[in-house]
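Supplementary Methods, section 5.1.

A reviewer requested that the exact input to the structure prediction be made available. We therefore reproduce it here, unchanged from the version used in the analyses.
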Amino acid sequence: MVNISIVNFKDILRFNQEAIYDFEESILVADVGIRDLHITRMFPIRTSFFMFVLVEQGTMRIELDYSIHHLSKQDFLLILPEHIYQSISGSPDTRYRLIFVEQAYFETMNRSRNDVLKTSFLNIRKDPVIHLSEEEFNVLASCHERLEQRMPAIHHFKKDIINALLLEYVIEAENMMINHHEHQVKQSNLTRQDIIFHNFLTLLKKDVIHQHHVSFYADKLYITPQYLASVLKQLTGKGTKDWIADALLVEAKIMLQHSQQSVQQISDALNFYDQSTFGKFFKARTGQTPKAYQNL
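The structure derived from this sequence is encoded token-by-token as follows.
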């Protein structure tokens, strides 16, 4: 898989440099507006870092993996490494606080916290947005401000201070997300169809590069292909083959835009029969050949 680092993501979005601070190319802290972003390369992309987003004003629209999320004032969004960003947009007045942390860096900071993240954030891929109370928002905003203030400082123990402030932010965010998700679990009435759909998306994200056949996903879910198609059609209006094709197209776009592989190598990596088959698949859905898309 092709994962974009913080350094490369900064190049893609072209942040206003006066609005951001970074540390060892592994942590980025920013207080920006939608107008501070100048996208120079196209989505979709997959990243190698955690992204914490705190919306101060305005509205945002972000498409992650295969779902669209709408955010407004006092919303908090956590995007895990390897999420697929399909698009990002916002109202002209949108302002938000961002913290990016490379997964590899975070894992060196505190093993016990990383273990907690792996368990308590399992719900994030399904529901990455929570609406904060004013008190919760102020707590995270305060943590963010302290971290931002120390980023440019000269200090013999700067790394220790930054790590401590970052962990404070993560712990506070984690506590809020656990509380919100526990409340949602109590209030929710998930149907069997909802669970099948969620599990299908999890499989699709993990296996679509190598598995293009409906029967594979149905077998993994212990249901018939016909029942899987019925569930997806009922919940989303799209059939199983369309979901697989759309997910495969996203992976193809990521590889074509953000890797150094040839079209032939990408065709092989995506498990197409040959380059011609891959080309026909891609052009039928985009109106462009893979090579033309790669050269944009």
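The chain is about 50% helix and 20% strand. These observations are discussed further in the main text.
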